[in-house]
Structure formats: structure tokens, C-alpha cells
Design goal:
Elements: H1 10-42, E1 68-73, H2 80-93, E2 100-107, H3 119-125, E3 130-136, H4 139-144, E4 151-155, E5 161-165, H5 178-188, E6 195-196
Parallel strand pairs: 1-2, 2-3, 5-6
Antiparallel strand pairs: 1-4, 4-5
């Protein structure tokens, strides 16, 4: 009796190809998700125009005989944890310069000062030599051109602007970055022009977003 050749079910080959396309689509989706997160983390926030001299109308405390650091934060921005870590690094490197440091927390008028109470506020209050400040209505932020949480400005003893920008490499991450180096250099220098850097964080007047 002649032997029959083994049969092949076309559906088996079709099913294999279908599984491959599903796997390929999943990889493409996963890759797109990572690309989106990377884009979000590295997209800088808005920056207004920072005055080249300390605004006379500002109510923030400032000793004209010492350099000043002013950091603007959204009190509920998770990205700003990294900014405070970088600020601590900067202060550790510039203790001899004894800068006056004020961290300004944005608070919408409709919610009032209680809006700022939380993790970031408590952390700033525990930092030696750092003064927290509640900015109801973002009045001071507007005066200094700050629009994004994490925007830091440095003014020299002569009240001239030395630095304006961010001090983290990306949104919500710590590590060496141009902003941190520029701030340390600005505090060590007796004079010089202002340096700018990108700011990574949540809008000061908007809802916070989670860090990827």
C-alpha cells in the first residue's frame, strides 16, 4: 500500500505568522512608550524673562552684601524632589560663600497658603539656612520670570543676575548637569555675566504630573 505524504494544515502556518505580527506590534508599542517617556523627561519647561537686576518691588528677603539663591517650586510637583537634592549638593559645595537661600512655593489665590504643606515644604523647612516662602498668586514668580517648578536664579552681592534656569539634567532625575555647574561657578565668581539653563519640571500655575 503506497504511503501518503504528510499533510500540512495551512492554518498552522497562518497562526504562526499571526503570532509573530502580534509580537512585533507589541514591541513597537513598547518602544513607542519608552520614546514618549524619554521625550517627556527631556522636554524643558517654559521660562520667562528674568530681570538682570534684583527687582526692587520684590518682597523676598535679600542681603545686598551676600549672593542670593531663589528657587521657585510647585509644592506638589514630584519632579522637584530631584531639584532639592541638587540644591543640597550646591550648598554643600559653596558653604564658604554663604549665599542667602529662599525657596518660593507657588500657591494659587483660590487655595491659599495651606496648599503648600506637604513633602517638599517639610523638606525645605528642615534644610539649614534655607527659608521657605509662600507665593500666593505667583506674584514673585512673575517678577522673576519663573514659570516652571525648579527654576532657580542667582544674584550676586551687587544685585546683578548671575544665573537663571534649572539644576537637574532631566525631569525628576539627579546627576551632573550644566545648571548645577553654572550655579557653583556663579557663586564662586565675584562678577561676570548671567548664564542660562533649561528648566525641567511642572508648570508653576498648573497641576503636577508624575515623573516617568
Amino acid at each position: 500500500m503506497p504511503r501518503q505524504a504528510p499533510s500540512h494544515d495551512p492554518s498552522e502556518r497562518t497562526g504562526g505568522r499571526g503570532a509573530w505580527w502580534v509580537f512585533a506590534a507589541w514591541l513597537a508599542f513598547l518602544g513607542g512608550g519608552f520614546a514618549l517617556l524619554a521625550s517627556y523627561s527631556t522636554t524643558a519647561g517654559a521660562r520667562g524673562t528674568t530681570p538682570t537686576e534684583w527687582p526692587q518691588e520684590s518682597a523676598l528677603p535679600h542681603d545686598p552684601g551676600a549672593p542670593a539663591i531663589v528657587l521657585f517650586l510647585h509644592p506638589r510637583c514630584p519632579c522637584s524632589r530631584a531639584t532639592l537634592t541638587e540644591l543640597e549638593e550646591i550648598l554643600a559645595k559653596t558653604q564658604e560663600r554663604r549665599p542667602e537661600v529662599v525657596v518660593v512655593f507657588a500657591a494659587p489665590r483660590e487655595v491659599g497658603p495651606a496648599f503648600v504643606e506637604g513633602e517638599l515644604w517639610s523638606r525645605v523647612r528642615a534644610m539649614p539656612g534655607v527659608r521657605p516662602w509662600v507665593d500666593v498668586g505667583e506674584v514673585e514668580a512673575h517678577r522673576f520670570g519663573a514659570e516652571t517648578s525648579g527654576h532657580l536664579v542667582v544674584y550676586g552681592p551687587d544685585l546683578a543676575l548671575r544665573f537663571s534656569g534649572g539644576i537637574t539634567p532631566t525631569r525628576g532625575h539627579v546627576g551632573p548637569n550644566p545648571g548645577e555647574r553654572a550655579v557653583v561657578a556663579a557663586l564662586d565668581a565675584s562678577d561676570g555675566g548671567a548664564v542660562a539653563a533649561s528648566v525641567f519640571g511642572c508648570p508653576l500655575d498648573g497641576p503636577p504630573r508624575e515623573v516617568p
